[in-house]
Structure to design on (677 residues):
C-alpha cells in the first residue's frame, strides 16, 4: 500500500471510530434520560439549541472555548513529560487572583490599558508559580503531583475566599458574588454587537500554535518527550529531568494562569469564588480525549464547550440538572479508553 | 477555650470522622492490592445520593445503606475492570470516574434535593454508655459510627492475621512472585478493589443518612474523597494509622468551627481548606522520613526523628502499575 493510501485508510478508520463512539455515547445518554424520566429528544434539542441556536449562544460557546483551550494547551506539556497536572484548576485560580491584584493597583492609576496588559503577565506568572510549587514538591520531596496539585487547588480556593470576604471585599457587604466589578475601561474589549473578545480568541489560537511548535520543532519539546517516554534513559543521557519537569509545569501553569486572567478580564470582570468554572478539570478530559496530542484539542474543546453552554438551559426548560453535559463528556472519555484497548488487542492479533 | 468540653469534643470527632474512616480504610484495602481507586470523591457523592434516594423511597435505612455500598462497589468495579483486566491507566480511569460519578449524582439526585428524609437516630449501647469518660466518647453514637470503629479492627486483622490478607499484600508488593506461586493476582486485585469500593460506598451512605443528613447540590461531602485518598498515604498504607489520620482531620474540622469563633471576620470556608496544606506537609514529612531512614537506621533520638519514624510507611511496591500475567 502506498503511504498516502495507508494514511487515507487510517483516517477513514479513525473517522469511523469517532462516529461509532459518539453514537454509542448518545445511545447511553438516551437511556439515562429515559431512566431519569425526561424526554430524551427534547433534552438533545435543548442542548443543541442552547449551544448553537443563535449567534449570541455561539459567542458564549467560543468564550468558554478560550479558557478550555488555554488550559488544554498547558496540559499537553505536562502529559508529554509524564506528569498528571491535576493542579491546573488551582493554577487557573492563582492566575485569576494575581491578575485581579494587578488590576486593583491599576484601578487607582490613570492607565487602564497598560495595567490590563500587565494583568495578563501577572496572571501567567501567578499560575506558573503555583504550578512550579507542585512541581518542586514532586521533584524535591517526591510528593505525588496529583496530591500536591489537588492540595494546592483547595488552598487556592481558600485564598480566593479569604480575599473576597476579607481584604478585597466589596464596600458594605462581602458575599459569594465576588469582589467589586472593575471599571469597563479595564475589561477585555469585545466586538461591538457580540460579547466576543477577539484578543481572547487570538490568545487561544496563539497558544495552540505555540504549543504545537514547541513540542515538535524545538529541543525543549524533544527533551520533554524523551523524559516522558523513559525518564531513566533520559537522565543517563544527560538530560536534567527534574529541571525539564519544572519547565513543563511552569508552561502549564502559565497557560492556566492566562485562562484565569481571561475569566477575570473577559468574562466576569471581577474575582468570584468559582472563577475557574471547573474548566481546568474539564481540560484534563479534553486532552485525554485528544490522546494527549495538541492537534485534536481545539475540536474536542469546542464540542465540550457546546455541551457546557447548551446544558445551561436544561434546568429551566426541562427541570434537569445541568450536569448532564458532564455525564456525556465522562462517558465519552471512558468509551475512548475502551476503544484503545480494543485497538491494541486487534493490533497484537494481527502480528 | 471557654465552654469547650473535652468529652463532647472527642465524641464529636469520633462521630464526625466516621465516613472519612470508612473511606480511608476501604481505600487502604484497595491500594494494598496494588490498585489506586482515584474516583473516591465522585463515588462518595454518588453513593450518598443513591443511599438517600433509596432510603427516601423505601423508608428503610438498611436498604439505603446497602444501596449506597453497592454504588461505591460498582464504581470501584469499573476502575478494577479497566485497570486490572484491560490494562488502562488507573489514574486516568479513576479521574474520569471522579467527575462522571459526581455528575451522575447531581443529575439523578436533582429530584431529591433539599427533601427531608430518613436519618439514623443515635443508639447508645446499653451499659457501656454509662462508663465515665469512655461511655460518652465511644458508646453514645449511631450504628454507622460503631461500624466505622469496628471496620478499623476488622481490616487490620484481615490484612495482617489471615492467609488471604497475606495473599493480598503479596499481590500488592510483588505480583510476579505472587503469580508464580499460583495466586490468581487479577481475581485478588478485582475483589479487593470492589471490597474497598463497598466501604467507600458505605462512607457516602453514612454522609447522607447520618453525618450530614439529606441530599443537595452541594451535599457537603465534596472534597472528602480527596482527603481520604491523602489520609491513606498519610497513614502509610496501614489501616490503623489511616484511621488515626482520619480522626486527626476530623479534629481539625471541629476546631475550625472554634477558630472561626475566635476570628469571626474569616469565612468558615477558609478553615475547611486547612486539612489540605497539612496533607501536603505530611506527605513531605513522609518523604523526609523515608530518605532519612537510610542513615539513622531506625535509631531515632530526636523528637522530629521519632515523629518521622512514626509516620513512615512504604507504599505497596507495585501500586499503580498494571500487571499482565503471561
Amino acid at each position: 500500500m502506498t503511504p498516502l493510501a495507508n494514511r487515507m485508510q487510517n483516517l477513514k478508520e479513525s473517522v469511523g471510530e469517532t462516529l461509532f463512539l459518539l453514537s454509542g455515547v448518545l445511545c447511553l445518554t438516551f437511556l439515562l434520560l429515559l431512566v431519569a424520566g425526561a424526554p430524551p429528544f427534547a433534552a438533545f434539542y435543548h442542548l443543541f439549541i442552547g449551544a448553537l441556536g443563535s449567534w449570541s449562544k455561539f459567542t458564549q460557546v467560543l468564550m468558554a472555548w478560550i479558557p478550555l483551550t488555554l488550559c488544554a494547551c498547558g496540559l499537553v506539556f505536562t502529559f508529554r513529560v509524564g506528569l498528571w497536572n491535576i493542579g491546573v484548576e488551582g493554577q487557573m485560580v492563582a492566575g485569576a487572583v494575581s491578575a485581579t491584584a494587578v488590576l486593583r493597583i491599576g484601578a487607582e492609576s490613570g492607565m487602564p490599558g497598560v495595567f490590563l496588559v500587565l494583568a495578563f503577565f501577572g496572571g501567567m506568572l501567578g499560575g506558573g508559580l503555583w504550578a512550579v510549587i507542585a512541581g518542586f514538591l514532586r521533584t524535591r520531596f517526591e510528593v505525588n503531583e496529583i496530591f500536591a496539585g489537588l492540595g494546592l487547588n483547595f488552598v487556592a480556593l481558600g485564598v480566593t475566599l479569604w480575599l473576597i470576604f476579607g481584604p478585597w471585599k466589596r464596600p458594605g457587604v462581602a458575599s459569594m458574588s465576588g469582589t467589586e466589578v472593575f471599571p469597563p475601561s479595564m475589561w477585555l474589549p469585545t466586538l461591538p454587537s457580540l460579547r466576543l473578545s477577539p484578543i481572547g480568541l487570538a490568545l487561544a489560537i496563539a497558544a495552540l500554535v505555540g504549543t504545537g511548535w514547541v513540542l515538535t520543532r524545538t529541543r525543549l519539546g524533544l527533551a520533554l518527550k524523551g523524559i516522558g517516554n523513559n525518564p531513566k534513559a533520559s537522565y543517563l543521557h544527560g538530560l536534567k529531568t527534574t529541571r525539564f519537569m519544572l519547565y513543563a509545569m511552569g508552561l502549564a501553569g502559565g497557560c492556566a494562569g492566562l485562562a484565569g486572567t481571561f475569566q477575570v478580564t473577559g468574562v466576569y470582570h471581577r474575582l468570584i469564588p468559582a472563577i475557574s468554572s471547573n474548566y481546568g478539570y474539564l481540560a484534563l478530559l479534553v486532552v485525554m480525549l485528544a490522546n494527549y496530542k495538541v492537534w485534536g484539542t481545539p475540536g474536542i474543546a469546542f464540542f465540550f464547550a457546546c455541551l457546557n453552554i447548551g446544558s445551561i438551559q436544561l434546568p429551566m426548560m426541562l427541570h434537569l440538572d445541568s450536569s448532564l453535559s458532564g455525564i456525556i463528556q465522562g462517558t465519552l472519555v471512558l468509551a475512548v479508553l475502551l476503544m484503545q484497548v480494543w485497538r491494541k488487542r486487534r493490533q497484537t492479533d494481527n502480528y | 477555650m471557654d465552654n469547650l468540653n473535652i468529652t463532647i469534643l472527642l465524641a464529636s470527632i469520633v462521630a464526625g470522622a466516621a465516613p472519612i474512616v470508612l473511606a480511608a480504610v476501604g481505600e487502604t484495602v484497595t491500594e494494598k492490592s496494588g490498585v489506586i481507586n482515584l474516583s473516591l470523591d465522585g463515588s462518595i457523592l454518588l453513593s450518598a445520593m443513591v443511599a438517600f434516594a433509596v432510603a427516601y423511597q423505601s423508608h428503610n435505612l438498611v436498604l439505603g445503606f446497602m444501596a449506597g455500598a453497592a454504588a461505591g462497589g460498582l464504581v470501584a468495579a469499573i476502575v478494577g475492570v479497566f485497570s486490572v483486566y484491560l490494562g488502562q491507566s488507573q489514574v486516568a480511569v479513576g479521574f474520569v470516574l471522579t467527575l462522571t460519578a459526581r455528575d451522575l449524582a447531581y443529575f439523578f439526585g436533582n429530584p431529591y434535593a433539599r427533601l427531608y428524609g430518613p436519618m439514623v437516630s443515635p443508639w447508645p449501647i446499653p451499659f457501656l454508655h454509662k462508663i465515665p469518660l469512655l461511655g460518652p466518647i465511644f458508646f453514645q453514637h449511631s450504628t454507622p459510627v460503631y461500624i466505622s470503629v469496628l471496620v478499623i479492627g476488622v481490616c487490620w486483622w484481615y490484612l495482617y492475621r489471615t492467609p488471604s490478607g497475606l495473599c493480598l499484600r503479596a499481590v500488592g508488593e510483588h505480583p510476579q512472585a505472587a503469580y508464580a506461586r499460583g495466586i490468581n493476582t487479577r481475581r485478588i486485585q478485582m475483589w479487593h478493589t470492589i471490597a474497598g469500593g463497598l466501604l467507600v460506598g458505605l462512607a457516602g451512605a453514612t454522609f447522607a443518612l447520618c453525618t450530614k443528613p439529606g441530599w443537595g447540590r452541594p451535599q457537603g461531602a465534596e472534597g472528602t474523597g480527596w482527603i481520604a485518598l491523602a489520609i491513606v498515604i498519610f497513614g502509610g498504607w496501614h489501616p490503623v494509622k489511616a484511621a488515626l489520620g482520619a480522626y486527626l482531620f476530623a479534629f481539625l474540622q471541629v476546631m475550625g468551627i472554634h477558630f472561626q469563633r475566635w476570628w469571626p471576620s474569616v469565612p468558615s470556608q477558609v478553615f475547611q481548606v486547612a486539612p489540605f496544606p497539612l496533607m501536603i506537609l505530611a506527605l513531605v514529612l513522609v518523604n523526609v522520613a523515608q530518605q532519612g531512614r537510610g542513615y539513622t537506621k531506625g535509631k531515632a533520638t530526636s523528637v522530629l526523628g521519632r515523629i518521622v519514624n512514626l509516620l513512615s510507611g512504604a507504599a505497596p511496591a507495585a501500586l499503580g502499575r498494571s500487571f499482565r500475567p503471561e
Notes: Chain A has a mean pLDDT of 91. The CA atoms of residues 128 and 261 of chain A lie 12 Å apart. Residues 3-35 of chain A form the longest helix (33 residues).
